[in-house]
Amino acid sequence: MTREHNLLQDAIAGKRAALARLLSNVENDSAFAMRLAQDLAPHAGRAHIIGITGPPGAGKSTLINQLLPRALGTHERAAVLAVDPSSPFSRGALLGDRVRMQGPSTGSNVFIRSMASRGDQGGIARATATAVQLFDACDWPVIIIETLGIGQVELDIMNLADTVVVALNPGWGDTFQANKAGLTEAGDLFVINKADRPGADSTRRELLESLSLLARRPLPTIVETVATDGSGVDELWGAICSRFMQLQADGDLATLRQARRMRLANKSIRAELDARAAASLASSAGQRLTERVAAGTMSSEETTRVLLQLLQGDQASAP
Q: pTM, whole model, 2 decimals?
């Protein structure tokens, strides 16, 4: 047996140190992550994966800290993957979210892991999908993913979560028109956090107006919370659980996960093609190609055709 296999078996057996080591390897070694993801595929599909997303300052970490005790009242264990900005020096996570989550929610039945975004633009890290699969395989029944603060298009959490919770603040109405399209389409539940502040009523009205334009029915639930004192969090957790149980009862969960896996596969394929295209253009044949493009002696259609030949390894026919 390989050391990699032994680590996975130890993690599945409940050894936290092995799980932590595997998460580090997944984050730091993309080839390792790809191999591990293949091994984990048969174990997927048991956990309820909850995404918490929204703009910066919405109180996502504080909400999760309040949700954890509720999750532990329903399940034996809960895991959190908090995607943080990357350090400009080490490229590791800055750990801000993990610091904010320290407190009564931590313990042997909670696993909180910060994960550096490393420049990925979708609100999560490239390694997050494999990390989720790993927690799922190790029988963590609830996995909560906190994204970076996001805007309209950074919505990769849709590719991972069964339930996407969008957290907003009163007063977000000034930027709501610019951001609402992506967020309202992505969200399954909406939270107006810090609802004790002025502007909560107008934010709810604007949100309801935007959601009413969606084709899907029923419309997503809106919950008001004050995460700092726990107000409304019981209602939020109840809404999360109710939606998940309804998906299971209606048979829609399998369909949702199939669509999610296809989106994730498409994203992975595009990323791999981008990487290979960049490598081909950096080759000597690719440099000759870019020189002709820059000189205007090759059309975009011909450039595409030749680049595809380079990707297929046909150096002989390249210019």
A: 0.82
